[in-house]
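Researcher: Let's try something more involved. This one mixes different molecule types, so please make sure each is placed in the same coordinate frame as the others.
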Amino acid sequence: MQAEENTLEKVVCEMGVEIKNADGLHMRPAMQFVDVANQFECDITVSNNENSVDGKSIMQMSMLAATYGTKLKIKAEGADAQQALDALQELVEEKHFDEPAPSDQKKR
Amino acid sequence: MEIKKGVAVSPGIAIAKSLIIDSEDYRIPRRSVTPPQRMIEIQRARNAFKTAADELTQLKAEQKTIEQRKIKDIFAVHLSFLRDRSLRKRITDLIHSESVTAEYAVSATLREIASNFAKVKDAYISERAADIYDIERRLLRQLVGGKREDVEHLTEEAVVVARNLSPTQTAGFNKEFVKGLATDAGGRTSHTAIVARSLGIPAVVALEDLTETISGGDIVIIDGNRGIVIVNPDDETIRQYEEYSHEFAELGHRLDAIKEKPAVTRDGVRITLLGNIEFPDEAEVVLQKGGEGIGLYRTEFLYLNRPSEPTEEDHYQAYAETVRVFKHRPVIIRTVDLGADKYTQSKRFAPEPNPFLGLRSIRFCLQNLTMFKTQLRAILRASVLGEVKIMFPLITNLQESMQTKMILRDVMEDLDEESTAYNRDIKIGVMIETPSAALTASTLARDADFFSIGTNDLIQYTLAVDRGNELVSTLYSSVDPAVLRLIRTVIQDAHKAQIELSVCGEMASEPEYIMLLLGMGVRTISLTPPMIPEIKQIIRSVTIEDCNNVARAVLGMNSERQISSYLRDAARKILPEAF
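Model: All components are placed in one shared frame. Result:
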């Protein structure tokens, strides 16, 4: 019974994102990612092809060493999973962690 | 109980709790804790995270301008790491599963993370390893920083255990409570050895991995006679050592009894015994041990542990204090020998690739005239208080010697103009500590009032051996035939020029070398104060004829090993209980 209840309550969402800022997911972007992730209740896991890490840990996130163009999969489990994914996608793909994309750099 | 073998560099026995000093630059050694202690270590790690985070929050808040935004970002990232639960968990898990100290767990975990960064091909990301090291240092400062201060504020007896000891660290020791030293690195003439001998405490060096097998607070026996360190000895061993230590002290007392007697050979030749000192308060020790003056007053201590250069007054006070103790007995002040291993102000003097062949000692002084003249003024002013002599280190040729004397004359003229009193006839000596100086001793002698042979550097430059490097330290020997030939040349040239000569290196504190030195014609010896009674005892037990025979035999030998064992046998016959 209990297991069933859990499955019912648990919302699981997944989404693919691509790193679009030139310098990749270095320390400061990793921190921003973690800061956003920590605003939500749900568990967040981020994976590249090789590793799966806790999206709320800067240590683990920065060790993904995701460079420009890397595709990541974000998985969220919990009541606010969808909101979390939306916020993270905005940060990674639209705001590019407030950093320039390679094309922007050329323009400057 | 664990017994470690090393190299004995200062005699005596110490039994006390260990105090481990870590250097920021070294890997934190792996140290085990008992299972019940793990909770304490976990708590220490948590506290370190908390204090470090508070410190960073404060720092971050202080960065207010737009230019400081980048720094603020860096601090924010570091803070984020310190608040990362999974990082903390990894560290506390390591403490729990492996029963290690908090500092080891912090260091091992963060270095592993840093090395993962360093492997990433993207340069921008791989450079972030530096951030991780910075976080590591911040945490370690919380964990080990306090301990380092402990050495200065010790309240109970302890033996100090370290990977290596720097002059700055030893200068801060509370001499009342530090009972012995043991280090992983070092050789017979390393700084640790010199400091231990001048403090009269036992020391063993070159123990390789001692810091990894010991935990702070473990009971340790340091046997500075046999070169052994025993970690966590059993009761029986402690009892045996207490007895042995007592016997050793007895020998010391017996030797102290000859303090008032002169250093005269059995056939009536008078030998002068002087002390080597590093700090002014050691002057008293020289007197207590029966020394007749100071043959080498190292002045580098004035430059240690202080943010700015010492003033003329700082120099003067230190010299005046020592000279007053000796009144009309000689005090030979050596001008500052900074650089190379005594490299203390790394912030100001950019590191050199080959410091022992670089800008050190007199060379450094000749390029920093303001600093040099400050010291010369102070020495000259102190010269009216007693029998002060001045000695220049690492002179390698006549030109350097002449240039140095010219600067001294400039300073004298300045003092004349101000009508400041000084001894116009102050004796000026040259240290012979390079092969070039030894080979041209006859030339240098024309321009000097006395020579002092600094054997430590002379050996290292002659044999091309770094005395602190345990990989080659066995090649370092005072009685290598090459070294002895140079020493003989210097002695002969000094005699021909009729100038005074003394030997002031570590060689002069070695009981087995005394007969040889006397036989080669040395009549003045300057040595580490605690060894004065023992050396005097030997002098009083021999005749110059014995010594001449020893020297003749040794100078005909071609191998260092043969010479060493011959000298050890000869000395054992004279003072059996010391060997």
